[in-house]
Amino acid sequence: MAYIGRQLNAGNYLKLDDISSQFNGSTVRFNLTSGGNPHYPGSAFSILVSLGGVIQEPSSAYEIDENQIIFAAAPQSTDDFFCISLGEALGIGVPGEGTVSTNKLQYQSVTFEKLDPSARGVGIQSGGLIIGTGVTALNFVGTGNTFSYNVSTNTVDISIQSGAANTIFASNSVGLSTTKIVGVNTTTIAGAANSEGAIQAVGNVALVDGALLTDQNIDSNLFIPSGKNGLVIGLVTVGLGITIDVATGSVLVVV
Predict the structure, then answer these.
(1) pLDDT score, position 163
(2) 28 vs 181 pLDDT, higher one
C-alpha cells in the first residue's frame, strides 16, 4: 500500500528504546535513548509518546529536558510504552561564496575584529609615506581648515591653517602671514655657529616701528664667527664670567 500523506523526506525517524521496565508508579523523569545512546529531542512536539496504549499530549502530559522525558503523572508499572522520534534537526550547510546579501545579516552582526585589517579605518600618508593606519576619524581643529576628495587618486587632500587669519606656507620659500605681532624666541643656538640662516634670535630682540630694541645685559657667551660682523648698541653690561670672542677677520662694533 502506498504511503498516505506527506512523504517523510527530511530528518531521521526513530523508535526509541522501551523504558517501561523503569515504571514504578512514583518516578516521573526518565532518560530517552536510541540503541542505548542518549537521544535529545528538539522539543516535546518532536516525539510521539504512547503510554498505556494512549497517545500523550505534548507539553501537557509530558515535557522534555535535554535527553530526559518528564511525565506530569508517574507511569504505573503495568503501563506499556513506545516513543517515536518524528525527525532530527537538519544541519544547515555553509552558504556558497557571494550568496549572502546584506539584507540577510543581523544588525551589528559583523564586529570590528572580523573586518579585514586593510578595511579598519583610514591609512594616513605624508608625501607618499605611510604615517598611520587604522585611523577612524580626522579631526580638523581651528578656523579655515579644509579638505577635498581627489577622485583620480582616491585620496583626501587636507589644507591646514595655523589659526584665524594666520597662514604658514611651505614650498621653495617659507612665508609667515599673521595679523598678530611676530615674536621669535629661542634658548638654543641652531647649527655649529652663533649665527645660522637668515634670522636667529637668542634672548630678546624687537622691532617696534622704526626702532631696534635690544637688552642692555649680555648674560651668555658671545662669539662672532669667521666671516661675520657683530653689532652692540649703547651701553651694555657683560655678566660675570661671560666672554666675548671675535674670530680673526671678523668685527664687533659698539655704537
Answers:
(1) 47
(2) 28
pLDDT band at residue 189 using 50, 70 and 90 as cut-offs = low
Are 219 and 242 a contacting pair, CB within 8 Å?
Answer: yes
3-state secondary structure the chain: CCCCCCCCCCCCCEECCCCHHHCCCCCCEEECEECCEECCCCCHHHEEEEECCEECCECCCEEEECCEEEECCCCCCCCCEEEEECCCCCCCCCCCCCCCCHHHCCCCCCCHHHCCHHHCCEEEEECCEEEEEEECCCCCCCCCCEEEEECCCCEEEEECCCCCCCEEEECCCEEEECCCCCCCCECCCCCCCCCCCCCCCECCEEEECCEEEECCEECCCEEECCCCEEEECCCCEECCCCCEEECCCCEEEEC
**pLDDT tops 70 at residue 226:** yes
CA quadruple 103, 104, 109, 114: dihedral sign: negative
When pLDDT is cut at 50, 70 and 90, the band that residue 7 belongs to is very low
- What percentage of residues in the chain have a pLDDT greater than 70? 61
CA-to-CA separations, 82 to 50, 54, 100, in angstroms, rounded: 5, 10, 43
From the list 31, 26, 77, the residue with the least C-alpha distance to 51 is 77
The residues spanned by each domain of the chain are 14-85, 112-159, 181-255
